[in-house]
Design brief:
Layout (H helix, E strand, L loop, with lengths): L6 E5 L3 H11 L6 E6 L4 H6 L2 E4 L5 H11 L3 E4 L2 H5 L2 H7 L4 E2 L3 H8 L1 H10 L8 E4 L5 H8 L2 E5 L9 E2 L7 H12 L5 E5 L4 E9 L4 E3 L4 E2 L2 E3 L3 E4 L4 E4 L12 H20 L5 E10 L2 E8 L6 H6 L2 E2 L2 H10 L8 E2 L3 E9 L9 E3 L11 E5 L2 E4 L2 E4 L5 E7 L2 H18 L2 E2 L7 H15 L2
Parallel strand pairs: 1-2, 1-4, 2-3, 4-5
Antiparallel strand pairs: 6-9, 7-8, 7-9, 10-11, 10-16, 12-15, 13-14, 15-20, 16-17, 18-19, 20-25, 20-26, 21-24, 22-25, 23-24
Helix pairs in contact: 6-7
């Protein structure tokens, strides 16, 4: 234990990690926070006693820094460190970690393995799919499906998926992209394109007990109206009733059941319990809930939504999951709505020069709004934006309109004061109405 409480080491440097740091800082245990990341994130610098920077895929550096910092608990944010085997290394030296070992993290690192695991264990939800290690057979399978999605089998930061008819306009373009993927990945996956509305369900688990977070809808497209390329996520929202307006009463329980069955199946395939967060990306269709993909950690930005309304000692919760005693922890989610809006450089997602930020975003956050730093770094008294997402405002309110209004007010104020932009449509009534009408048309209701 640290002098004032447990020493908690956070791994990551995005707004998700800053939100996790804020949740930890609110713990009655008064933890001493430490961080390892790739940038000197201003939020982490403000909340942590020490921040070290290096590569989150360099397990030797991560392990050496962890030994020197001697934490009582490690909370791993991004997927790269999990897939690289950081938790496995922590286990060897007896440091508790919130996050799965590499074998479990393969649920995200290999889309092909994730699909296989679901099928092998008789779990519903998979679309039609096939993984290819060469270009042989690609064209016939694309033509067989007609509507399909091309996915690299590996980590791509949420930016590798291409949808035929949206990102890829012709079979020739699709073949060229799939062939390009095979140059850098062991496999490329071709999947049936599913029609419906996507949502995320994050489940905290110790391998047996589960804590289902409220569902969240993320917006990956760069521009308003869901136009433009996929990004790491431009924002997200959740509703006060812990459902989403376009979901049927059976949809959330169906997604929860799939997550629970996967959590039960993982030890059979990996030989160890899955501990941390299992994030299911789902889609509500005319034929029920289907599985899009799995992530092995909190979503970014979806973590920001659920942590904003979590009533629990988050440090205790993570420690309990890491130790296999999540069933002993107490928790609840407040019946409030949340809207998260990422603020990004004006040219995002295209590369842009490093830019000094002359305004303090946190000073623009009014009542019911918080700011979390992402791909910015502090040097002395100055803060610089990189070419990735700069940070996120999250609004919390009794209604979605209240939460959206609070987040939008802060995000638009920052956009007026700095060379940034955001998606003003996230969480708005007009956007939700389109989602609801889309599902009604699909279901014929």
């Amino acid at each position: 234990m640290g002098a004032s409480g447990p020493r908690v080491l956070l791994v990551g440097n995005d707004a998700r990690t800053d939100a996790i740091a804020a949740a930890c800082a609110a713990s009655p245990a008064a933890p001493e926070l430490l961080a390892l990341g790739e940038l000197a994130n201003p939020g982490l610098l403000a909340k942590c006693a020490e921040v070290r920077t290096g590569s989150l895929t360099d397990v030797d550096w991560l392990a050496a820094a962890t030994r020197e910092l001697a934490p009582d608990l490690v909370i791993v944010g991004p997927e790269a460190a999990l897939a690289a085997g950081y938790v496995d290394r922590l286990r060897e030296v007896g440091v508790p970690a919130f996050g799965p070992a590499a074998a479990g993290a393969a649920i995200e690192a290999s889309k092909a393995w994730a699909r296989w695991l679901v099928d092998e264990n008789g779990i519903p939800g998979n679309p039609a799919y096939r993984a290819f290690e060469s270009a042989e057979g690609l064209l016939p399978y694309m033509e067989q499906l007609g509507a399909f999605v091309v996915k690299p089998d590996g980590l791509t930061g949420g930016k590798g998926v291409r949808v035929f008819g949206e990102h890829l306009q012709t079979i020739e373009e699709a073949l060229a992209y799939a062939t390009e993927v095979l140059e850098t990945h062991p496999r490329v996956q071709i999947e049936e394109r599913l029609e419906g509305e996507e949502f995320s369900l994050q489940t905290i688990t110790d391998g047996e007990a589960v804590l289902h977070c409220p569902p969240v809808q993320d917006h990956k497209r760069a521009f308003a109206g869901d136009e433009g390329p996929n990004t790491g996520g431009m924002g997200s929202y959740s509703c006060a009733d812990h459902s989403l307006p376009f979901l049927d009463a059976a949809d959330v329980p169906a997604a929860q059941d799939i997550n629970e069955r996967v959590i039960e199946a993982l030890p059979r395939e990996t030989g160890e319990p899955y501990r941390g967060v299992l994030y299911g990306g789902f889609i509500a269709t005319a034929d029920g809930v289907r599985l899009i993909e799995y992530n092995a950690r909190f979503g970014d930005p979806e973590a920001i939504n659920v942590l904003a309304i979590l009533d629990a000692d988050f440090v205790e919760l993570c420690a309990a999951a890491a130790a296999g005693r999540l069933g002993d922890a107490s928790w609840s989610f407040r019946p409030q709505a949340t809207v998260c809006k990422y603020v990004v450089p004006a040219d995002y997602p295209a590369p842009s020069p490093r830019t000094k930020l002359d305004v303090a975003p946190e000073e623009l956050a009014g009542e019911g709004v918080e700011w979390y730093w992402a791909a910015c770094e502090r040097e002395g008294g100055d803060v610089f934006m990189t070419s990735s997402r700069g940070g996120a405002f999250v609004g919390v309110g009794d209604s979605l309109a209240d939460a959206e209004g609070a987040a939008e007010s802060a995000a638009s104020a920052l956009e007026r004061a700095a060379p940034v932009r955001h998606r003003a449509d996230i969480g708005t009534e007009a956007l939700l109405r389109r989602r609801v009408e889309h599902m009604r048309a699909l279901r014929g209701t």
